[in-house]
């Protein structure tokens, strides 16, 4: 999932597993999801963004220290430090981004409201906030709940930032413009990952993982600094200029490359047999950080927007500095080192030409694979529509504040229900369901993944429709629970794709999946933002239009899953009862 902070996105770290692959054809060296193994925690398979260069003998040495060569011994020595720093980095990065979501949304909303409705903002007071009765005529339509507030509070902060609880700021014109800004910001945030996938993937094999990871985090830091500067000078700088902050993520490739480098570094030191456990732990750390980040940002927002904004930036800087302590792992594989020596000794091809040749060869291989595996290409469409539907999560915070009259702080607290539910799903529900499918119903692992993906999609449809129809906060929370129950759908489809291809095509499939995720993200943001804007303009029950749109995407995805048929050798020996 992609996490977004008022238009600032960082790719979601999926609970994932991995096995070794020699390369990733589409990205020509860029870390991408690879083959799957079974997680002892989830009793299911999913994917992670990694590039692995080890072979079976290296894994055997990792598991048998008595037979270890010097490289294997070095991997074992570096493993604890790499694991610790990877967990710390994941937690810090998600914490930094998550805690800035409520204040960024609040600041952007107030800037837009002040520009569209300057009459409701009073001049800066000498000391205390201005408290005045709401203007006449407010309190009808969708904002009736918010309009019942007995008083409106206007708060002035450094840089001309003014936060107001006035219900006028929840009007369709303000919220529609905010949705448009955030939707296109999501699209622009995806571009650095698409553009930088090939070059930074190759640079990670030449310079190392740590320099590329450091550049990626540094680019995100600069993008936040630029966005904050636009907020500070909002009196003279249009708010849409925040879109240009995505350009700074071209330094390092942004969140997509950042997460790819973390997984690649872990794959360099973790034996194949242990990666399922480690990648699951990474996913758990991500969800735990996600659960606390929003409430922390919302609580700090009560004291003023600049406190959570600057604290989040400080955490990002700490994460950037922490990369300096991450050991370089590029040199830990003899096979890769020998190949590089051969390149230096025997190749006179210019670097730019070599880069272009790798990219073209990878794209040609992917195209040939798609033409030769049309049934799997059809299954990939299910993943595309699932990704499109999943992006509705990016507007949940804004939707909750507008429809139910909640403050940004309260809404951020309520949304932790989805994160907590996702964690429970991964820890409890999916393992139990997987065990029942395999042990009680006699399904194969592939059949189990297909059926769990189908029913996860059904719960996503129900969750989306419940959110669209939720007339109060209680029903909204209930819908969040259903969305959380289906949160494993993407990982299950990825696992299914990995299991149905030959081993030498695993890299191709997952490279294509990663590329489709990024491209899907560029389309999903503006599309769902436009549906929110249209729903706000129509009013009434139509305010839930984004979730109707999301549910429609999930319906298409589930329909494809139900139409898809497994090869005979992959079918369960016992037909499931549903």
TrEMBL record:
InterPro entries: MFS, MFS_dom, MFS_trans_sf. The keyword Transport does not apply. It comes from the Eukaryota. It is found in: Membrane. GO terms for molecular function: transmembrane transporter activity. GO terms for cellular component: membrane. Residues 1-47 are annotated as: Disordered. Its main location: membrane. It is a multi-pass membrane protein. Keywords: Membrane, Transmembrane, Transmembrane helix. Pfam families: MFS_1 (PF07690). The keyword Transmembrane applies. The chain crosses the membrane at residues 81-101, 212-234, 240-266, 278-300, 306-327, 376-400, 420-438, 450-469, 475-497, 509-529, 541-564. Residues 24-38 have a biased composition (Low complexity). Residues 9-23 have a biased composition (Basic and acidic residues). Residues 82-569 form the Major facilitator superfamily (MFS) profile domain. This is Major facilitator superfamily domain-containing protein. It comes from Achaetomium macrosporum.
């Amino acid at each position: 999932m992609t996490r977004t902070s008022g238009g600032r996105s960082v790719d979601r770290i999926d609970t994932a597993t991995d096995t070794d692959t020699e390369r990733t054809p589409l990205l020509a060296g860029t870390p991408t999801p690879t083959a799957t193994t079974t997680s002892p925690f989830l009793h299911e398979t999913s994917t992670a963004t990694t590039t692995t260069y080890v072979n079976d003998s290296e894994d055997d040495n990792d598991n048998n220290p008595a037979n270890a060569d010097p490289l294997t011994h070095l991997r074992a020595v570096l493993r604890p430090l790499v694991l610790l720093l990877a967990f710390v980095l994941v937690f810090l990065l998600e914490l930094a981004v998550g805690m800035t979501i409520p204040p960024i949304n609040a600041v952007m909303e107030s800037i837009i409201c002040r520009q569209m409705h300057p009459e409701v903002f009073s001049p800066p007071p000498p000391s205390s906030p201005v408290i005045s009765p709401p203007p006449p005529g407010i309190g009808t339509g969708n904002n009736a709940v918010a309009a019942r507030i007995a008083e409106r509070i206007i708060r002035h902060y450094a840089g001309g930032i003014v936060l107001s609880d006035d219900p006028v700021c929840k009007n369709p014109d303000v919220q529609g413009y905010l949705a448009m800004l955030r939707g296109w910001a999501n699209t622009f945030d995806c571009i650095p990952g698409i553009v930088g996938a090939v070059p930074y993937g190759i640079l990670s094999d030449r310079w190392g993982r740590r320099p590329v990871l450091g550049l990626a985090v540094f680019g995100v830091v600069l993008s936040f600094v630029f966005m904050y500067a636009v907020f500070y000078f909002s009196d003279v700088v249009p708010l849409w200029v925040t879109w240009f902050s995505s350009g700074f993520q071209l330094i390092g490739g942004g969140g997509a490359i950042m997460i790819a480098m973390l997984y690649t570094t872990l794959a360099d030191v973790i034996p194949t047999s242990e990666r399922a456990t480690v990648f699951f732990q990474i996913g758990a750390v991500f969800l735990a950080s996600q659960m606390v980040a929003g409430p922390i940002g919302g609580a700090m927002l009560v004291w003023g927007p600049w406190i959570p904004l600057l604290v989040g930036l400080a955490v990002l800087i700490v994460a950037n500095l922490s990369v300096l302590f991450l050991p370089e792992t590029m040199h830990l594989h003899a096979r890769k080192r020998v190949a590089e020596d051969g390149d230096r000794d025997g190749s006179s091809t210019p670097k730019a030409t070599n880069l272009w040749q790798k990219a073209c060869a990878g794209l040609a291989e992917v195209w040939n694979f798609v033409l030769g595996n049309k049934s799997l290409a059809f299954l990939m469409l299910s993943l595309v529509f699932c990704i499109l539907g999943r992006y509705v999560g990016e507007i949940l915070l804004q939707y909750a504040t507008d429809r139910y009259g909640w403050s940004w702080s309260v809404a951020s607290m309520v949304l932790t229900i989805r994160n907590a539910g996702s964690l429970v799903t991964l820890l409890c529900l999916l393992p139990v369901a997987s065990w029942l499918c395999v042990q009680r119903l006699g399904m194969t692992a592939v059949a189990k993944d297909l059926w769990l993906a189908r029913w996860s999609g059904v719960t996503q449809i129900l969750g989306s429709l419940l959110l669209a129809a939720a007339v109060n906060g209680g029903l909204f929370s209930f819908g969040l629970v259903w969305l959380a129950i289906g949160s494993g759908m993407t990982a299950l489809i990825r696992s299914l794709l990995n299991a149905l291809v030959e081993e030498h095509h695993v890299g191709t499939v997952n490279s294509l999946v990663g590329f489709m995720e990024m491209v899907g993200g560029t389309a999903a943001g503006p599309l769902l933002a436009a549906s929110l804007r249209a729903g706000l303009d129509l009013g009434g029950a139509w305010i839930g239009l984004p979730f109707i749109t999301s549910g429609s995407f999930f319906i298409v995805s589930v329909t494809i899953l139900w139409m898809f048929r497994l090869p005979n050798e992959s079918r369960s020996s016992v037909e499931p009862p549903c």
